[in-house]
């Protein structure tokens, strides 16, 4: 990497080593006919994507010491369309689960949706208005495991019923994890249609009902993990609103944000023996 003052979002050498094998393999499969290796290092391309994800800046406002929009978007779009972003994410997810001494794929997932406003210029054909939450924009759906790691992502118009999001998420869960997932927890926004669809996939869908005697925000066992994941993602300012013209780009942003979270988890230093933790 060229010498420059690092940004807080930059990957360390150790963090880059977790991603680099996937990128190197991708480069080997996409060699230039002329043999040209490109003007920018792949680590810097990823740093630019992560910088934009964390700061939320527009493409044209990428710092001059990072690769420009033309190069960064070129790779962002290629990796979005061929699934490289998901390959990287999936590799890291399995490593985080292994570090937590869990099997590679979960047996239980938690589903939920979040409606977010869109930026000016986002095509109206891909947006709608969530009447219940009074939010015009898009609906972001997640399926996460009990560690809060993402198993599936879907992005739909905000006026799409949670049933459609739930069905799409269950299909992805079944595709990505095979037959390991046996149960899914959902809130009352999902209806029997999702339960029936899950049954057809061999997944028991449980609608977790809220206790009517409870007031305010009361975390529900296991289901709170998906709320926590949404909270972590919103720390990446590119996800505070939906700025992407394509829903597939919005989903890719989620994968990149979670990739950034996971490389930090995997390279976090354990406290020395006898050290006290802050409460």
Overall residue-averaged pLDDT value: 91
SS-derived structural category = alpha/beta
Number of helices: 8
Largest sheet at a glance? 6 strands, mixed
Assess the beta-strand content as a share of residues. Answer: 5-15%
Helix content: 40-55%
N-to-C series of helices and strands? HHHHEEEEHEHEHH
Note the gap between the termini: 38 Å
- List the uncertain runs: none
Rg, Å, rounded? 20 Å
* DSSP E strands, number: 6
Q: In one word, what is the shape?
A: globular
Describe this structure in words.
- It contains eight helices and six strands.
- The protein is 42% helix and 14% strand.
- The chain has 279 residues and is of the alpha/beta class.
- It is globular and about 60 Å long.
- Strands 1, 2, 3, 4, 5 and 6 form a six-stranded mixed sheet that branches.
- The mean pLDDT is 91.
Describe, in short, the structure shown.
The protein is an alpha/beta fold and 279 residues long. The chain is built from 8 helices and 6 strands.
What is the fold's blueprint, element by element?
Elements: H1 13-29, H2 42-55, H3 69-82, H4 84-99, E1 108-117, E2 128-130, E3 135-144, E4 150-157, H5 162-177, E5 183-186, H6 192-200, E6 204-207, H7 224-234, H8 247-267
Parallel strand pairs: 1-5, 5-6
Antiparallel strand pairs: 1-3, 2-3, 3-4
Helix pairs in contact: 1-4, 1-8, 2-3, 2-8, 4-8, 5-6
